[in-house]
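Technical annex, item 7. During the second reporting period the consortium partners agreed on a shared format for inverse folding records so that results from different sites could be compared directly. Each record opens with the tokenized structure and is followed by the designed sequence. A conforming record, contributed by the partner at site C, is shown below for reference.
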């Protein structure tokens, strides 16, 4: 039932204000969701009915769920988010209003729903992306350090070879001097 766009779901349950809350409860149960947005004929959000609203405004007051309209149980006016609004301001609005879910609108019409669960999933994806980027950076630094160590090792090896070659030339020069001196004595 949830198709995500950015950080909010675009498929959400809606109902008209005169729909009996029993039908809302059935829909919540069927789709395993915690709220239904109450909308007018033009899909403008009028309010939100949550599972808690059903418990506190219908069951606790012993109202008949078959005859009690959604408008009697809804929280209104709803706290809304704009579709193009930055996630940070949506989170702040939810925190300030102390709500866990808010309808998302574009030009006043309902286009989605953002919930704390959606935000946690979004944050999780961002953290995963950040973790992957950090891992890539660490791996790249390690590769560079290994390349640098290999360059340094190669430079040391080349210097050792130069020293060995110089020592070899010096040894050959000394041997030649001994041979020349021997030839003079014998000769």
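Designed sequence (site C submission):
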């Amino acid at each position: 039932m949830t198709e995500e766009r950015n950080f909010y779901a675009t498929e959400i349950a809606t109902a008209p204000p005169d729909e009996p809350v029993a039908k809302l409860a059935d829909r919540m149960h069927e789709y395993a969701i915690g709220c239904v947005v109450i909308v007018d004929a033009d899909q403008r959000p009028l309010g939100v009915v949550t599972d808690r609203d059903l418990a506190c405004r219908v069951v606790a007051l012993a109202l008949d769920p078959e005859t009690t309209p959604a408008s009697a149980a809804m929280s209104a006016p709803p706290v809304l988010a704009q579709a193009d609004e930055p996630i940070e301001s949506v989170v702040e609005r939810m925190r300030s209003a102390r709500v866990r879910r808010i309808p998302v609108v574009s030009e006043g019409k309902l286009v989605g729903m953002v919930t704390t669960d959606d935000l946690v999933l979004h944050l999780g994806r961002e953290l995963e992306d950040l973790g992957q980027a950090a891992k890539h950076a660490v791996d790249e630094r390690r590769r560079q350090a290994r390349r640098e160590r290999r360059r340094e090792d190669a430079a040391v090896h080349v210097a050792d070879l130069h020293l060995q070659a110089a020592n070899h030339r010096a040894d050959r020069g000394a041997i030649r001097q001994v041979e020349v001196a021997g030839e003079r004595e014998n000769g």
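Residues 1-5 have pLDDT under 50 and may be disordered. The first helix runs from residue 21 to 31. All partners now use this format for quarterly exchanges.
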